[in-house]
Amino acid sequence: MGSRKMLMTTAMVALLVLPLAACSSSMRIKSARLCQAGGGTYSGNTCNPGTANAKSATQMCQAHGGVYISDLDMCEMPQ
After folding, report:
1. Ordered per-residue pLDDT tens for the chain, 79 residues
2. Is the C or the N end of the chain the one with fewer CB within 10 Å?
3. In the chain, how many domains are there?
4. What is the CA radius of gyration of the chain?
Protein backbone atom coordinates (compact mmCIF):
# COMPACT_ATOMS: atom_id res chain seq x y z
CA MET A 1 0.00 0.00 0.00
CA GLY A 2 2.96 2.32 0.57
CA SER A 3 3.97 2.18 -3.09
CA ARG A 4 0.40 2.99 -4.13
CA LYS A 5 0.42 6.09 -1.93
CA MET A 6 3.81 7.07 -3.37
CA LEU A 7 2.51 6.66 -6.92
CA MET A 8 -0.60 8.75 -6.20
CA THR A 9 1.45 11.49 -4.52
CA THR A 10 3.91 11.56 -7.41
CA ALA A 11 1.02 11.77 -9.86
CA MET A 12 -0.44 14.72 -7.94
CA VAL A 13 2.91 16.54 -8.03
CA ALA A 14 3.16 15.91 -11.76
CA LEU A 15 -0.37 17.27 -12.28
CA LEU A 16 0.50 20.42 -10.35
CA VAL A 17 3.65 20.99 -12.41
CA LEU A 18 1.98 20.23 -15.75
CA PRO A 19 0.27 23.64 -16.26
CA LEU A 20 3.59 25.40 -15.68
CA ALA A 21 5.28 23.38 -18.38
CA ALA A 22 2.42 23.28 -20.88
CA CYS A 23 4.48 24.93 -23.64
CA SER A 24 7.42 22.62 -23.16
CA SER A 25 7.94 19.15 -24.59
CA SER A 26 9.35 17.99 -21.27
CA MET A 27 9.35 18.97 -17.63
CA ARG A 28 11.99 18.94 -14.92
CA ILE A 29 11.44 18.06 -11.29
CA LYS A 30 14.07 18.27 -8.56
CA SER A 31 15.01 14.83 -7.30
CA ALA A 32 14.43 15.87 -3.68
CA ARG A 33 10.88 17.02 -4.48
CA LEU A 34 10.12 13.79 -6.33
CA CYS A 35 11.33 11.76 -3.36
CA GLN A 36 9.54 13.86 -0.75
CA ALA A 37 6.29 13.71 -2.74
CA GLY A 38 6.39 9.96 -2.26
CA GLY A 39 6.90 10.28 1.49
CA GLY A 40 10.65 9.68 1.48
CA THR A 41 13.68 11.64 2.63
CA TYR A 42 16.36 12.69 0.16
CA SER A 43 20.03 12.70 1.11
CA GLY A 44 23.22 12.20 -0.88
CA ASN A 45 21.42 11.62 -4.20
CA THR A 46 19.46 8.75 -2.62
CA CYS A 47 15.77 8.58 -1.78
CA ASN A 48 15.13 6.75 1.48
CA PRO A 49 11.44 5.78 1.57
CA GLY A 50 11.64 4.49 5.13
CA THR A 51 12.02 0.86 4.03
CA ALA A 52 14.96 -1.22 2.88
CA ASN A 53 14.31 -0.22 -0.74
CA ALA A 54 16.33 3.02 -1.00
CA LYS A 55 16.72 4.23 -4.60
CA SER A 56 19.30 6.47 -6.19
CA ALA A 57 18.15 9.65 -7.92
CA THR A 58 18.86 8.00 -11.28
CA GLN A 59 16.77 4.91 -10.43
CA MET A 60 13.93 7.03 -9.08
CA CYS A 61 13.87 9.17 -12.23
CA GLN A 62 14.04 6.20 -14.59
CA ALA A 63 11.19 4.51 -12.71
CA HIS A 64 8.99 7.47 -13.76
CA GLY A 65 10.15 7.31 -17.39
CA GLY A 66 12.53 10.24 -17.08
CA VAL A 67 16.16 11.05 -17.73
CA TYR A 68 18.30 12.10 -14.75
CA ILE A 69 20.41 15.26 -15.18
CA SER A 70 23.20 14.91 -12.62
CA ASP A 71 24.55 18.48 -12.95
CA LEU A 72 21.16 19.91 -11.99
CA ASP A 73 20.08 17.00 -9.75
CA MET A 74 16.78 17.00 -11.66
CA CYS A 75 14.64 14.50 -13.49
CA GLU A 76 13.46 15.46 -16.98
CA MET A 77 10.29 13.66 -18.02
CA PRO A 78 8.51 13.78 -21.35
CA GLN A 79 4.99 15.16 -21.31
Report:
1. 466 676 667 766 666 655 555 556 777 888 888 888 777 888 888 888 766 677 788 888 888 888 998 888 888 988 7
2. N
3. 1
4. 12
* Amino acid making up residue 7: L
Q: For residue 79, give the nearest of 14, 33, 12 by alpha carbon.
A: 14
Q: Which domain holds residue 18?
A: 2-78
Q: Is the dihedral of CA 24, 26, 31, 35 positive or negative?
A: positive
d(CA 49, CA 39): 6
| List of E strands, 21-79 | 26-30, 41-43, 46-48, 55-56, 67-69, 74-78
Distance of alpha carbon 74 from alpha carbon 5, whole angstroms: 22
Phi-psi region of 37 (alpha: psi -120 to 50; beta: other; left: phi over 0): alpha
